[in-house]
Amino acid sequence: MSAKPDSVRVAAIGDLHVHQNSSDGLQAIFDNVSQNADVLALCGDLTHLGLPLEAERVVNDLRSCRIPVVAVLGNHDYHSGQAEEVKRVLRAGKVALLDETETFEFQGVGFAGAKGFGGGFGRSFL
After folding, report:
1. Strand runs (DSSP E) across the chain, as ranges?
2. Which residue among 50, 79, 107, 126 is least crowded, i.e. fewest CB within 10 A of its CB?
3. Around 107, how many Cα atoms within 13 Å sit in the side-chain half-sphere?
């Protein structure tokens, strides 16, 4: 299946909750997404406890993804207080992180994102 020349197919996945001891990988899912979309958006809670090792597992699974990947972190990705290290691991794995200052553009389509928690967004985000 190929996209129309004037369209961009976006696949979105959230709440992966990859655990440091997870035995099930996501390679088959990411391979399938690569065949059916132009961009993959990871929509928060990529990790279970916000550990860099969990982010490394996500990046390892993303090796089967052959399209650009954008992501926004969720509350679980901040849980351990190591969010900056999680971000570093994801960026090293060629994931474009979307936050207050970072955006991504693909074939004229812009992507932006922000972290929101269970209570929604803080006043400064509105």
Report:
1. 10-13, 39-43, 69-72, 95-97, 104-106, 109-111
2. 126
3. 12
pLDDT tens, 72-116? Answer: 999 999 999 999 999 999 999 999 999 878 999 999 999 998 876
Structure tokens at 39: 């961009």
Q: How far apart are CA 35 and CA 65, in angstroms?
A: 9
Least Cα distance to 51 among 20, 8, 11 occurs for 20
Q: What share of the chain is helix, strand, coil (3-state, %, to 5)?
A: 30, 20, 50
CB 14 within 8 A of CB 45: yes
